[in-house]
Amino acid sequence: MQFIDLKTQYSALRESIAARMQRVLDHGQYIMGPEVAELEQQLAAYTGAKHCITVSSGTEALLIALMALDIREGDEVITTPFTFAATAEMIVLAGAKPVFVDIEPDTCNIDARLIEAAITPRTKALMPVSLYGQVADMAEINAIAARHGLAVIEDAAQSFGATYQGRRSCNLSTFGATSFFPSKPLGCYGDGGALFTSDDRLAQAAREIRVHGQSKRYTHTRLGVGGRMDTLQCAVVLAKLERFEWEIERRLRLGARYGELLAASGVQLLAVRPDRDCVWAQYTVLLPDGTRDRVQELLKAEGVPTAVHYPIPLHHQPAYAHLCCPDCCPNSQALARRVMSLPMSADLSEADQERVARALTQALAQVQAATPA
Questions:
Q1: CA distance readout (Å), 225 to 3, 56, 63, 207, 274
Q2: Strands across the sheet with 283-286, in order?
Q3: Confidence band (pLDDT; 50, 70, 90) for 25?
Q4: How far apart are CA 105 and CA 332, in angstroms?
Q5: CA distances (Å), origin 372, targets 245, 286, 361, 368
Q6: Which residue from 184, 162, 174, 200 is spatially nearest to 233, judged by alpha carbons?
Q7: pTM recorded for the entire structure
Q8: Can you list the domains of the chain with their CATH numbers?
C-alpha cells in the first residue's frame, strides 16, 4: 500500500500527460511557454481570483507575496507554529519576524481568537495556514486584518480545491499561495506553485518579482527572484485538471468514510467546521498521548504506511526557537505529540481504506491493553 498513490493517477491520465508534455517538447519554449498563461487562466477561473501567477514552488509563492507587500526588516508577520518550516522560513528570509499564535485543539488551524492580542505596531501581515486541507477561520482573520490595516496571506499549500463559506481557498484574502508539490491535492511532477490575488497592483508586482524584478527584459524595477514555474510542469498540471473535480469529490467522500470507519477506534478525529470542507491533503488523526511510536510500528508491520505532520512545532525548532518562549503555544506542543497521518489520495480504494482502519483500531487496542492503568 502506498501512502499517496500517484501511480494509479498517472495511469488514468497517461495519454493526456504525454500529449501535453509532447507539445512542449515540440514547441521548445521550456521557460514561460504558452502553457504557463493557459494554466494561469484556468486556475484563476477555478478559484474566482482575478489573477493567478504561477511560480517555482509553494515556498517561493510565500516569499514573492511577502516581497510584493514590501514586508522587510523590522516588520512582523503573525502565523502558526504548527506547520511546515517554509511558512516561517519565508518570513525570516524576507527580513521580518514570525510571531507565533497557537492553534485550535480540534482543527490544528490557527486560533483566530488569539491573533488580535499578538498584533503590535510592527505587525504588517497575517499568514494563516490551511492545514491538512481545511481553511482556517478566514472571515474572522480578514476582519481582524481590516481593523488593523493588515494584509492577509493564506498559506494554502495543502488546501487547493477546498471551499470556505462558498468560496475557494486561494481567493479568500489579499494573497493566496499554493503548492503543486507532487503529494498535494493538485500536484505536478517536481516543484511548482501559484499565487492568487484580485489586486492589480500586487499581481503586477508578483509577476515582476518572479522574473528577477523585471518590468520588461533587462529593466529591473524591483528586487526579484528566479521564481518561474517550468512550462513542462504547467503542462502536467493542465492534464491533471481534467479530472481534478472528480478527485476533490473523491477526497471528500474518502474523508467522510474514514470518519465512519474510525468512529469507534479510540482515535480523535479532526473537526471540520460546518461552513467549510476539507480536501484532506493529509488524513490526520489524533492518538492518545504516548501511543504514536508503538502504533506506527504495529501499522508498519501490517504494511500500512503512516507519517507525522508535524512532530516538532516551529517554536521548538533550533532555527526559530529564539523567536518565542518554549511554552507560548501549548496546543501546538501537545498535538505535535499526537498527530498521525494515514494513507490518503483520490485513488485510495475502499478495500485499502478498510484495511487501514482495521489495522489502526487493532493497533491502538493492543497498545492500550499493554499500558498500565
A1: 34, 10, 9, 10, 40
A2: 268-269, 283-286, 339-342
A3: very high
A4: 8
A5: 48, 21, 19, 8
A6: 184
A7: 0.97
A8: 6-101+111-242 (3.40.640.10), 244-369 (3.90.1150.10)
Grid coordinates representing 372?
Answer: 498500565
Tell me the pLDDT tens digit for each residue of 86-99.
Answer: 999 999 999 999 99
Per-residue pLDDT of 143-190, as tens digits, reads 999 999 999 999 999 999 999 999 999 999 999 999 999 999 999 999
| SS3 per residue for the chain | CCCCCHHHHHHHHHHHHHHHHHHHHHHCCCECCHHHHHHHHHHHHHHCCCEEEEECCHHHHHHHHHHHCCCCCCCEEEECCCCCCHHHHHHHHCCCEEEECCECCCCCCECHHHCHHHCCCCEEEEECECHHHECCCHHHHHHHHHHHCCEEEEECCCCCCCEECCEECCCCCCEEEEECCCCCCCCCCCCCEEEEECCHHHHHHHHHHCECCEEECCEECCCCCECCCEHHHHHHHHHHHHHHHHHHHHHHHHHHHHHHHCCCCCCEECCCCCCECECCCCEEEECCCCCHHHHHHHHHHCCCCCECCCCCCHHHCCCCHHHCCCCCCHHHHHHHCCEEEECCCCCCCHHHHHHHHHHHHHHHHHHHHCCCC
- Gap between the Cα atoms of 194 and 228, Å rounded: 10
Q: How far apart are CA 240 and CA 60, in angstroms?
A: 22
Reading the block at residue 119, the C-alpha cell is: 498584533
How far from chain centre, in Å, is Cα 220?
31
Question: Which three three-digit cell numbers place residue 35?
Answer: 502553457
Q: Is 235 exposed, middle or buried (0-12, 13-18, 19+ CB in 10 A)?
A: buried
C-alpha grid cell, residue 95 = 527580513
